[in-house]
Amino acid sequence: MTTTGRCLCGAVRFTAEHVETHHHACVCGMCRRWSGGAAFLAAETSGTVFDGEAELGRYPSSSWAERGFCRTCGTTLFYFLIPTQTYLMSVGTFDDQAPFRLVREIFVDAKPDGFAFAGDHERWTEEETLRRLAPPE
Ligand SMILES: [Zn+2]
Ligand SMILES: [Zn+2]
User: Fold this and answer.
1) 72: CA distance to ligand 2 center in Å?
2) What is the CA(106)–ligand 2 centre distance, in A?
3) What is the pTM assigned to this prediction?
4) What contacts 24+ positions apart, CB below 8 Å, involve 56-64?
5) 20 to 30 A from 128, CA-CA: which of 25, 27, 76, 121?
6) Ligand 2 center to 40 CA (angstroms)
């Protein structure tokens, strides 16, 4: 089943052949600053195709990843892992967000004390996150 989504103004639209609806929330300092909020809610996708490439900005935030945004409205669209060519799309950009469930919070020790996600999902510290998700050197 093809899943669809778009930015706030609609200049950038996307489709994905597969979406992992059990998603994670990254509360690291970079993701909080980038999203301008509490976290980046990231759903892994495959077969991801964009319509509106001219409006799609890509910011290289590290040697292994790019962060995508709409050049017109500024919507936080995705985190792209270069080694595996994987798009982690922002959950808030999908047209139907009802199927999504938060199953993991990462970099929890970087989160400020002023807010917290409820629920009994997994919570990984920075050390645990890097050990389990970092690309091989
Ligand atoms: Zn836009
Ligand atoms: Zn992060």
Assistant:
1) 23
2) 8
3) 0.93
4) 56/12, 61/30, 61/34, 64/135
5) 76
6) 7
* Domain spans in the chain, listed from the N-terminal domain onward: 3-133
Residue % of the chain over a pLDDT of 70: 98
Question: How far, in Å, is the centroid of ligand 1 from the Cα of 84?
Answer: 26
Element at 57 (helix H, strand E):
strand 56-62
- Inform me whether the pLDDT recorded for 136 exceeds 80: no
Rounded distance, CA 102 to CA 100, Å? 7
Residue 33 phi/psi, 5° resolution?
-70, -40
User: For the chain, what is the largest distance between any 2 Cα atoms, rounded to a whole number of angstroms?
Assistant: 41
Q: Whole-angstrom Cα distance, residue 77 to residue 67? A: 8
Indicate if the pLDDT at residue 1 is higher than 80: no
- For residue 127, give the DSSP letter: H
Fold of 3-133: 2.170.150
Q: Which two tokens stand for residue 67?
A: 């962060």
- Residue 81 CB-half CA count within 13 A: 15
pLDDT tops 90 at residue 62: yes
In the reported structure, the alpha carbon of residue 41 is separated from the centroid of ligand 2 by a whole-number distance in angstroms of: 9
